[in-house]
């Protein structure tokens, strides 16, 4: 029984990392209507930027480094959209072309990360912590902070989407971008802001992934991208709340399943969930009308 | 004074123009209709006025302000509100949220304006927390008009507001259109049903093959053989005929 609670506890940590990343990916998809396959590399750039700040001469606190890394990836995402992806999306109506462009971008960024930071496994400068009992669960302080960051981020995003003019404009644009424009919404500004938020969440997600896995490699974001896809598809592609729920389902399922099978097959569990979702509820739990 | 004017406007998709040198004027407090056969370019012209398509030639003004090159999202602030024929509401947003978004282009307090608009559309008042996608087709068209009115427009441009609606609901929509005009707003309606246009509008423009064919008051247009015009045959205007642009 205690092993089950341990698995659920770590499942919540994984779900937190997944939620940050999956919501970031869904926000961007909702506005542009195409999947960014370079999202995992955005995460890696965030993770390595934080690592440089955290382990370099400045010894920046890991959480401050995480925020700076996230902001940097946010700016990078805006620039990449503005000067690379948006021109392609304007020129080619078929989504297939823009997906190929994001694939290419992913390869370029992966190699860029490798050439800048090397292929060795790196670790953050975080002191070893003894896990603390919280009810039946065991968490380290850092794991609790990761869960806290995810909860605060999800609440902030919910507040933004339902209470603010910018958030409602984002939802309107995600629903029907032409109607949003003719209703007076500055769709260019909303697109830029969404790419920034998506990049910010990718950068933060990359760092907390490195913290929870106690290691970062250039390809860790890309590998995790498939788990993110599983969460996004289970929740309903493009649905922010679906991504949150999908993250909890996939995070818990992969960790609890590891009790019964070899933990090295966790990624396969995420795939199995993805296939089941596509078979029995392809539109996801929170499907959006009019969207893929 | 004309609330909306378009002079020699041409536009289309890619390099082939669909609308060629179309000119219209829409007066405040009046319903002006654009009629024409399928493929005449009516909706393309509406999209050009609304800023979705860029005119390749010509000039568009609202309240004597040139909006020809104004960014599309600024056009509602210039006083022109557009209601497309299809996909005219934000389906995943509630009725209230749809109205709030319409009010973003207005300087007036959104709550005050929403109460005013809901007084015009009492059915929507009862369904404020419903998702727009769950409304009936007629209610969605009403919501689309209400959202457009939230911006307190000088001109409201309606692209086939009764397409696909039952005859009973069509009457309801047209009554609302007339009451909007009575409040002083200029109304430009793209209409497939000529009989309806002649019944409810004061001025009619006939578009054929992307160009102005004839325009005039309802009484003037009613005298013409519109079936022949729609089929591309000329009518024979005499000195008392409405203006032609052939």
What descriptors fit this protein?
heterodimer, A: 292 residues, mainly alpha, two-stranded antiparallel ribbon, globular, B: 246 residues, alpha/beta, Rossmann fold, 7-stranded mixed beta sheet, 4-stranded antiparallel beta sheet, 10 helices, 11 strands, 34% helix
Structural class designation of chain B: alpha/beta
> Compute the gyration radius of chain A: what is it?
19 Å
Oligomeric description of these chains:
heterodimer
Mean pLDDT of chain A: 93
Helix percentage of chain A: over 70%
Strand content of chain B: 25-35%
Low-confidence parts of chain B = 236-240
User: Could you estimate the helical fraction of the residues of chain B in percent?
Assistant: 25-40%
Could you describe the largest sheet of chain A, including whether it forms a barrel?
Answer: 2 strands, antiparallel
Number of strands of chain A: 2
* Major sheet strand order of chain A: 1-2
Q: What separation lies between the terminal Cα atoms of chain A?
A: 41 Å
Distance between the termini of chain B: 26 Å
Number of helices of chain A: 11
Largest interface: pair, residues per side: A-B, 22 and 27 residues
By DSSP, the count of extended strands of chain B is 11
What's the CATH first level of chain B? Answer: Alpha Beta
Q: Which fold name corresponds to the CATH topology of chain B?
A: Rossmann fold
If classified by CATH, what would the architecture of chain B be? 3-Layer(aba) Sandwich
* Lateral arrangement of strands in the main beta sheet of chain B: 6-7-8-3-9-10-11
Cα shape of chain B? globular
Overview of the structural elements:
The complex is a heterodimer of chains A (292) and B (246). Chain A is 74% helix and 2% strand. Chain A has a domain at 2-124 and 148-219. In chain A, strands 1-2 form a two-stranded antiparallel ribbon. In chain A, a hairpin with a 2-residue loop joins strand 1 (132-134) and strand 2. Chain A starts with a helix and ends in a 12-residue tail after the last helix. Chain A is mainly α and 292 residues long. Chain A has eleven helices and two strands. With 246 residues, chain B is an alpha/beta fold. Chain B has a single domain (2-244), classed as Rossmann fold, CATH 3.40.50.300. Chain B has helices at residues 42-50, 75-78, 95-103, 110-120, 122-125, 137-149, 167-182, 194-200, 218-222, 226-230; strands spanning 2-13, 16-27, 31-35, 57-62, 65-66, 80-83, 155-159, 186-190, 203-208, 211-217, 243-244. Chain B has a seven-stranded mixed sheet, sandwiched between helices. In chain B, strands 2-1-4-5 form a four-stranded antiparallel sheet. Chain B starts with a strand and ends with a strand. Residues 236-240 of chain B have low confidence and may be disordered. The A-B interface holds A 165, 168-169, 171-172, 174-176, 178-188, 288-290 and B 50-52, 72-77, 82, 84, 87-93, 97, 100-102, 104-105, 133, 147, 151.
């Amino acid at each position: 029984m205690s092993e089950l609670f341990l698995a659920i506890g770590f499942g919540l940590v994984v779900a937190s990392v997944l939620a940050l990343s999956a919501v970031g990916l869904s926000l961007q998809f909702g506005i542009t209507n195409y999947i960014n396959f370079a999202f995992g590399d955005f995460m890696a750039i965030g993770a390595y930027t934080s690592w440089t700040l955290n382990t370099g001469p400045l010894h920046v606190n890991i959480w401050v480094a995480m925020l700076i890394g996230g902001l940097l990836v946010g700016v990078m995402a805006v620039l990449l959209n503005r000067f690379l992806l948006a021109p392609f999306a304007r020129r080619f109506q078929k989504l297939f072309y823009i997906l190929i462009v994001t694939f290419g971008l992913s390869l370029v960024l992966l190699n860029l990360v490798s050439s800048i930071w090397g292929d060795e496994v790196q670790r953050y400068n975080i002191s070893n912590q003894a896990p603390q009992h919280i009810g039946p669960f065991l968490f380290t302080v850092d794991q609790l902070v990761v869960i806290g960051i995810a909860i605060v981020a999800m609440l902030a995003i919910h507040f933004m989407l339902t209470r603010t003019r910018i958030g409602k404009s984002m939802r309107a644009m995600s629903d029907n971008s032409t109607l949003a424009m003719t209703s007076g919404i500055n769709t260019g500004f909303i697109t830029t802001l969404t790419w920034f938020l998506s990049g910010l969440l990718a950068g933060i997600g990359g760092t907390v992934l490195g913290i929870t896995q106690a290691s970062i490699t250039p390809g860790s974001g890309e590998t995790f991208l498939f788990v993110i896809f599983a969460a996004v598809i289970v929740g309903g592609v493009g649905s922010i709340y679906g991504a949150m729920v999908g993250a909890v389902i996939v995070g818990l399922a992969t960790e609890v399943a590891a009790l019964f099978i070899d933990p090295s097959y966790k990624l396969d569990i995420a795939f199995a969930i993805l296939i089941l979702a596509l078979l029995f509820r392809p539109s996801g739990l929170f499907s959006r009308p009019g969207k893929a | 004074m004309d609330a909306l004017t378009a002079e020699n406007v041409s536009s289309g998709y890619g390099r082939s123009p669909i609308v060629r040198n179309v000119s219209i004027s829409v007066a405040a407090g009046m319903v002006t209709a654009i009629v024409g056969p399928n493929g005449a370019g009516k909706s393309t012209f509406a999209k050009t006025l609304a800023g979705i398509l860029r005119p390749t030639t010509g000039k568009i003004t609202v309240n004597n302000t040139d909006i020809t090159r104004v960014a599309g999202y600024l056009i509602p602030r210039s006083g022109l509100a557009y209601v497309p024929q299809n996909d005219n509401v934000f389906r995943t947003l509630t009725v209230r949220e749809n109205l709030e978004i319409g009010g973003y282009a207005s300087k007036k307090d959104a709550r005050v304006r929403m109460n005013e608009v809901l007084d015009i559309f009492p059915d929507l008042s009862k369904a404020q927390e419903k998702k727009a996608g769950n409304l009936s087709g007629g209610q969605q068209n009403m919501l689309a008009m209400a959202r457009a009115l939230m911006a307190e427009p000088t001109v409201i441009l309606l692209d086939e507001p009764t397409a696909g609606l039952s005859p009973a609901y069509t009457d309801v929509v047209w009554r609302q259109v007339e009451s909007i005009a009575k409040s002083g707003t200029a109304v430009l309606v793209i209409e497939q049903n000529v009989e309806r246009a002649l019944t409810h509008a004061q001025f009619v423009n006939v578009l054929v093959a992307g160009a102005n064919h004839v325009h005039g008051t309802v009484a003037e247009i009613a005298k013409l053989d519109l079936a022949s015009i729609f089929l591309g045959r000329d009518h024979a205007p005499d000195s008392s005929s409405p203006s032609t642009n052939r």
